[in-house]
């Protein structure tokens, strides 16, 4: 699915029932995910919030921003002199504090001492998002390897043979879950005897991606009632980052 078709909203751009330009709706969503404002607090020079939300629900349910991100990621990789599809990915998770809206599906992360949701991601070696899974924070990282690897191979066409992970993914179950999808799970551990923060090879890439996500205030906490909304907002945020770099404009005639 191309970038333009991904945003077509499943209804023609010139359909008589369409009152607002899709570009204006898209800009409203970018504003919302970046600033973290509530739906009803969208500026008045953007389409009314009910129209924006209704269109967002269509795009979200059809995972349009996930498709958009796949196209933009390929363009970004080619422009960077890489193959269109990656041959290695990095898996990790971040815990996001819950709010009253997401409280019903929140869990407690004992390691982070925080109640909320976990966003499990797979990124390529440039830090671009390939897959995301949202679970309660008490879910283990190992348990999401199967879902992440399955999605990675779907979006890349079975091009990824290796995934780098931290020590939270050790164990036969995680390795087997990756192997089912023909991915070799390689654990990057701290050097023996070292304590505290240590910058490990490959690990800095996904941490930088989390840093990018944290700059979008709507993603700083879990404000969403649906896990799918939180997941798709991550794809919207990463697509926004690539668009801001001019990836799409650089390939336009």
TrEMBL record:
NCBIfam families, per database record: transpos_IS5_3
Domain Transposase IS4-like: 85-242
GO BP term, example: DNA transposition
Protein name, as recorded: Transposase
Lineage top rank: taxon: Bacteria
InterPro entries: IS402-like_dom, Transposase_11
Residue ranges occupied by any Insertion element IS402-like domain in the UniProt entry: 15-68
Molecular function as annotated in GO: DNA binding; transposase activity
